[in-house]
């Protein structure tokens, strides 16, 4: 056994020579089978979804002793799990008290119809930068549908603005989306450094997003006169006081250098001390399937490391010169659309430390895996939420999304690559 470092923890690592040939073959079968489900969304002929595949794969890796039972807890990066869980509780509280709908409604109701598109993009992007993006989409979709109905506008471009804007905005911070949380934990990049480097990518990306959506959908639009009575979801300000104070404290903690998992956990604990919110409703805001998915994925990739699969992947990456920033950005974007961004990040996390400048590699991994989510409907959870939440009012087809998702993805990735190449 040889020691390795994973997420700042030292653990025993089984070299392929220590595993029997049968176990190495089994590891390949489990790894390929799991990532096949991650790519397709379910196992052909069976109702096994991504979290289910992660559980089955993790049990297989441990049951066949590809991962030693004594090493399972050490393969799991608990700071990532804690950060993700805590942010779900914090954001879930804001959702329950109506903050997101009220905030978005107050912004959007004050605008002329011609300003609705950039306002939707900016609102989705800014909220997603500091809070988990898929929850922002859950709140924004019904609000946008209501506003476009009142203003007699076609909802499609504004729904696309919610999806693409939330993805782009979430690239700015560690807490913007699950894969950024994972990267923040493994890379040890501080919250401020992350924002300083990728905040400009988000800002310019939102501008490029508006330009593409305006060109495809809005430039020939004739607006009707403004309609009064744009709905603003009700909000009891007395219920918002405590969540606002707690969230402000959490964000200050992030910028002050407190480990994100600790700051978020303290905020979540404070949110649970309440007389107004039923804890069971708050627990329903937690995406338990995503947490299970992360835990299983840690063990699957841990087994792949023990069996030498990750080492083989690194050899292939070196052969293809993926250590060049441009090639790495393209590879991350492609892999993220094949197997989804979180599994892609888990697989590529071993490659980032081998770059001449590891921090730039980590940031490129976060940037590319997030912006690649705008390519297709299935590219990110946020996209799927927008499409499903819009039914039956509006049906967003593959081509409806792809005709704007493709140029948005290409130009934002190009800018992100150029920016990181310049500042690194």
Please give the structural blueprint.
Layout: E1 2-6, E2 9-13, H1 21-40, H2 50-63, H3 72-75, H4 78-96, H5 99-108, H6 116-130, H7 133-151, H8 156-169, H9 178-187, H10 191-218, H11 237-256, H12 260-272, H13 279-284, H14 288-306, H15 309-319, H16 325-339, H17 341-348, H18 358-371, H19 381-390, H20 398-423
Antiparallel strand pairs: 1-2
Helix pairs in contact: 1-2, 1-14, 2-14, 4-9, 4-12, 5-6, 5-7, 6-7, 6-8, 6-10, 7-8, 7-19, 8-10, 8-19, 8-20, 9-17, 9-18, 10-20, 11-12, 14-17, 16-17, 16-18, 17-18, 18-20
Question: Could you characterize what this model shows?
Answer:
The N terminus is likely disordered. The chain is globular, with a radius of gyration of 22 Å. The chain is mainly α and 424 residues long. A hairpin with a 2-residue loop joins strand 1 and strand 2. Helix 4 crosses helix 12 and helix 7 packs parallel to helix 19. It folds into three domains: 97 residues, no CATH class; 71 residues, no CATH class; 219 residues, no CATH class. The longest helix is centred in the middle third of the chain and has 28 residues. Strands 1-2 form a two-stranded antiparallel ribbon. 70% of the residues lie in helices and 2% in strands. It contains 20 helices and two strands.
